Amino acid sequence: MLRVGSKAACMACRNLVSTNMGVRFRVPLQKLHPLSRAIHHRYSGNTNPQRPPHRTAARYFTSMSRLPMRPPKPPPGSGGRGHQQQRNFWVARLAARLLRLRYILLGSAVGGGYTAKKTYDEWKDMLPDFSEYNWVIPDFVWELSEQIDLDKLAKALPEMEEIAKLLPDFDKIGENFTFLKSLLSSGVSLGSEVKGASGLHLLLETSGDPPLKATDSSAAATQDGSDKQYKKSSDKEKIDQLQEELLRTQLKYQRMLERLEKENKELRKVVLQKDDKGIHQRKVKKSLIDLYSEVLDILSDYDANYNTQDHLPRVVVVGDQSAGKTSVLEMIAQARIFPRGSGEMMTRSPVKVTLSEGPHHVALFKDSGREFDLTKEEDLAALRREIELRMRKSVKEGQTVSSETISLSVKGPGIQRMVLVDLPGVISTVTAGMATDTKETIFSISKAYMQNPNAIILCIQDGSVDAERSIVTDLVSQMDPQGKRTIFVLTKVDLAEKNLASPSRIQQIVEGKLFPMKALGYFAVVTGKGSSGESIDSIKDYEEDFFQNSRLLRDGMLKHHQVTTKNLSLAVSDCFWKMVRESVEQQADVFKASRFNLETEWKNNYPRLRELDRNELYEKAKNEILDEVISLSQVTPQHWESILQKKLWERVSTHVIENIYLPAAQTMDSGTFNTTVDIKLKQWTDKQLPHKALEVAWETLQEEFARFMAEYKGKDQDDIFDKLKEAVKDESIKRHKWNERAMDSLRVIQHNALEDRSITDKPQWDAAIQFMEETLQSRLKDTESVIRDMVGPGWRQRWFNWINRTPDQHIRNETKNELERLLKLHDEHTAYLANDEVTTVRKNLEARGVEVDPVLIKDTWHQLYRRHFLQKALSHCNLCKRGFYYYQRHFVDSELECNDVVLFWRIQRMLVITANTLRQQLTNTEVRRLEKNVKEVLDDFGEDMEKKTHLITGRRVQLAEDLKKVREIQEKLEAFIEALHKEK
Length: 984
Description:
Layout: H1 7-20, H2 34-44, H3 57-63, H4 80-126, H5 140-147, H6 150-155, H7 160-166, H8 170-185, H9 198-207, H10 214-223, H11 232-278, H12 288-300, E1 315-319, H13 325-333, E2 351-357, E3 362-365, E4 372-373, H14 377-394, E5 406-412, E6 418-422, H15 438-450, E7 456-462, H16 472-479, E8 486-491, H17 493-499, H18 504-510, E9 521-524, H19 536-549, H20 551-554, H21 565-605, H22 614-630, H23 637-665, H24 670-687, H25 689-711, H26 722-735, H27 743-755, H28 762-791, H29 795-801, H30 807-825, H31 835-847, H32 854-880, H33 884-888, H34 899-943, H35 945-951, H36 955-983
Parallel strand pairs: 1-6, 1-7, 2-5, 7-8, 8-9
Antiparallel strand pairs: 2-6, 3-4, 3-5
Helix pairs in contact: 1-3, 1-4, 4-11, 8-10, 8-11, 12-36, 21-36, 22-34, 23-24, 23-25, 23-34, 24-27, 25-27, 25-34, 26-34, 27-34, 28-32, 28-34, 30-31, 30-32
């Protein structure tokens, strides 16, 4: 009889534990307890007690369970002694069986504890090799060892007493085990009843029992005959009870492993934080996934030419709208990072999320240096707002979705490394407020990402709706008919189990028997209870609790590795890196060949030019434009004033001659002349002159700016910048607003200049006369040209050029001759014809057979009198050249009253003073403001890539762009491949 706690029992337990742990020890027979050794010789047929057996101790112990149910008959003549031996045999057999059951369960518990400790040892080995961090801080290993005492951590592992507390009730399990054996002995088929109870099979296999023999079954049936009275309903309850007990035991072990996993995660976080502090202010070494993400970012902006396409792997998340794509991605990223809406399309453009491990849970955009702390709710809200703002900004007017990719990186402890692209949800109907082509646009974006032969398709299906309503499964099956790169994910399984009348439909889905599409793997997940305010931790707890209590696992419809987003994340990450390792070198070779083609084309077409891309060309053009603008400040004051004075007189000369000088001079009275001039000059200055002066100044500045821009167009300037310079010039002028606050002061200056009549010296007098002569001669020349056009060619032109007058010109010529005779008779005639004079002229012409309209007579008279007046004014101007002496002494002489000279002097002086004032405003204010506008325009154009692409064009630019990007892609791919090999 084996006593509990005896040496044989302890040795059997140790051997059983060794067998449980997968380690086999050969124990010599001499080391067994004498009683155990005697039992072995008695029933194993070994007649030599000294012969060592060649079987393990566990097998010796198992042989005890094979004792016959009936003891052998005692030999004749033994009497009571044989009866006593038979009783001792039954006692020994019963003790062996009871001890065997206890040691099986105890061994399983001890084996589970050993497995937990072994798992911890494996995780400890997975910690990063601290020797790799010697380049960061020489004493890093010693500092870390001081902070983390692994021996203390090992001692902190649960002891055997703690493990024993977690064990179930052995007596209850023993009863259930006895009951199960009775069912087997009764011939009850349990195949269908215990399907999915993997823990029970594991327990039976661990015990090492062979199949029950007929003798055992009959003996059990004889011993437990009373158990046959149980009905099938109570049998099923007992089986369910046993399954629940085993699941609870498994759950306790799982929690222990999770606790160890959490401790391992904290250790890794400490290591990463130490590393993060150690490399502060040093060159940061980019992680493997960051290197890969940079390549994908470049490729997203690369216009594929020369049959070079982006075939690098990435995880493409596709699904119907509101199927839970974003929720799955958030569970993998372990943060609520995306904007959410109820039934509304929230994902309006592709979002590339690069997941990697780091000491802190943060997120940042590719083009921004701001880090969002994902452990703070205010940062999470700001991140969601920023993503939504970027999405809406990327969508063009009149569209609903955009193909522009938003690049985001998420780092944190325990996050699996991979690159995912969240795409807009596939829709079946375009609703109000959407663009009409929204459905087709989403399909084209999804196909563009899925047609990549190395892309991993994460197909998301809503489990809470009818499977027949799915659209995305057909799309995925078209893009990956063999399912070699597709992973199917069924979301909202909790709602599906609750709503579906037959849960076996879920089993059909995850086994790939319901949808026509094929996949590498099938997963079932729960991503929340429908509230957008739930935290990721609460969702994880809810998901684990659901699957632990779900019939789907209990009844064997789902496997443990097919549930929870944690298992999904591990599977997707493994598949992603497997695809990366298989295809990245091939893609690097493709870009290497493309680079060779581009370099060959450049050498053949542009052998003497540097390979400047669009941004470099823009910077070069920007410097040239700024140099040209600076040249405006180098214009001399004399040049400015000369141009301003000339342009201002051209603008106002017609008004001065027609509306001021001629009406005043034709009065033939000196006093009336001066009065009329003063009145008209004041009205002109108050209303028109300052505005005209500012217009002239602004136009002069524009012309000078354009002139300097055009002067640089020579052999040293690249004509590829012409379009850009013209656009910068136009936009700068458009933005420039002239400072009109100086108008009031300019009006006062002009008033004072025109009111002054005192010519102080002879040179000024002569300059005024010269100005007057030039003006009158110019007007006379224009008037004679008008008269020639009215009357037609003279006799010389008609004779030599064979040109005849038109009938109208003939009439005009006859009228001109008649009016010239009138002017000869009345040399001092006024500017207007009297009515009787018009009648006389008309009748004289009719007498010669020329019919003339009175209006034609007046028009002709106006031009003839104007010519007559200008001729007289010029002759009077010659007389005034010697009149300065009389003007200075205020002598009154009708023949030398030179009031018209004084008027032109006043106009000339006003022009000089106005030009000087405008020049000061130009050089002191407006030129600098224009330079500022040009810089702002250049900065704005520099930030607008679309603008630069439109303004700097040509095959040379595009070739340099492609060459630069292909080189950059190839270099980064080579760096990534090198880092990938090092990690291996």
